[in-house]
Design goal:
By secondary structure, the protein is mainly beta. 13% of the residues lie in helices and 51% in strands. It has helices at 2-17, 33-36, 81-88, 94-107, 189-194; strands at residues 23-24, 65-75, 110-122, 125-137, 146-161, 164-165, 168-188, 207-224, 227-234, 239-247, 253-255, 260-262, 265-272, 283-294, 309-317, 321-328, 331-340, 343-353, 362-373.
């Protein structure tokens, strides 16, 4: 008990250190269709590959996996038939294609997340190496849009223990996450076009930030019959990046004076996984609810409660097929997955909120994973 009290005290001491004058850095959260498809609610049911990015307590869950290779492609836009026809006219009617792109940027925003990784998660051990590239932009016009782009190489190593306490099965885990990151903030489309242009009349004031950081994540899951209660603390105390920069136009370099941190995130969740007995091979559902709170250092970035709520379900059918649905920040998500031998394929449709308040700036997209997983 004394050790637990000391651990909690250390966490809050570290947390207090992150509330100074800092700039928030993007949270490391690769988009995975099996997670986003059920509303991004996974804290109490984390297991396998997804536990590396959600709750390290899941490393000791029975349904672990060895992911030889996972490739995820996640466009942050869904062009309709009219949009596609507009893009196809770029050769004959460039103005029409630009208008189509401008409409998409204004109404939904554009961008993508691409990530790939290898990992072993199971038997209390979590090891993973992941490359994640994320970009997004939204503006009043296509050419007036500012783009944020972040590329992160992350190596994760952690442990989880599963002590039994009467009717309780307790999973307690933690991990260390080393990250090497490159990013560009608020880069306009015009500046990207002007990069590499030898014309002295054009300028492209674009800084490329490069830095490293070491993060700590901890979590617990308590199983009581068909119910599971989970809690995870991601980026304990806030994860500080030490950045240097290079101006891509002038080639000027230097150290970044500002204090950049990934804000600490506290997630709590409940999972209800009924046991259908002899019918489990036919249908096996699980229901999840999460509350995910990010302790932003920027006082202007204070999301409403509705943007922090997540709920979803995953139903296994015939053991190899999975159907998913959820509510992510007030928006409907849906997905499907199938695993045949070692080939694991997952797809999802999702919408997320890009502002502090639900219903203000929704961004819809698709997610696809193809993995070799044992």
């Amino acid at each position: 008990m004394k050790k637990i009290t000391l651990l909690i005290l250390i966490i809050f001491i570290f947390a207090g250190l992150s509330f100074g004058e800092t700039k928030d850095d993007p949270i490391f959260a690769p988009v995975l269709p099996n997670v986003i498809g059920m509303g991004n609610a996974i804290t109490a049911s984390a297991h396998g590959y997804g536990a590396l990015f959600t709750n390290p307590a899941g490393f000791s869950k029975e349904d672990g996996s060895f992911t030889l290779l996972s490739v995820n492609a996640n466009p942050y836009f869904i062009p309709n038939k009219k949009d596609i026809e507009g893009f196809l006219t770029v050769a004959d009617d460039p103005a029409s294609a630009i208008n189509t792109l401008s409409s998409l940027v204004v109404t939904n925003g554009v961008g993508a997340n691409v990530n790939t990784g290898i990992a072993f998660v199971g038997k209390g051990l979590g090891l993973g190496l992941v490359v994640d590239v994320d970009s997004y932009g939204r503006g009043k016009t296509a050419l007036g849009t500012d783009i944020d782009a972040v590329g992160t190489l992350a190596a994760v190593a952690g442990l989880s223990f599963n002590p039994q306490l009467g009717p309780f099965s307790i999973h307690v885990g933690g991990d260390l996450r080393y990250m090497h990151r490159m990013k560009m903030d608020d880069v306009s489309i015009i500046e990207l076009i002007n990069l590499g242009d030898d014309d002295d009349s054009t300028t492209a004031d674009v800084d490329l930030f490069t830095g490293d950081a070491l993060a700590i994540d901890i979590g617990t899951i308590v199983d009581i019959g068909s119910l599971s209660f989970g809690m995870s603390i991601r980026d304990v105390g806030g994860t500080k990046f030490i950045y240097s920069y290079e101006n891509l136009d002038t080639e000027k370099t230097g150290d970044v004076d500002e204090d950049y941190r990934i804000p600490m995130q506290i997630n709590t969740g409940i999972t209800y996984h009924p046991d259908f007995g002899m019918l489990k091979w036919l249908i096996d559902p699980a229901f999840n609810i999460d509350y995910q709170h990010v302790l932003y250092g920027d006082s202007e970035n204070t999301p409403s409660v509705w943007t922090e709520l997540h709920a979803g379900t995953e139903i296994k059918v015939l053991k190899f097929l999975k159907v998913r649905a959820g509510i992510n920040q007030g928006y409907i998500t849906a997905g499907i997955g199938a695993k045949i031998l070692f080939l694991d394929v997952n797809m999802a449709y999702f919408t997320r909120e890009m502002s502090e308040y639900a219903g203000v700036d929704p961004n819809s997209g698709m997610s696809l994973e193809v993995a070799i997983r044992f």
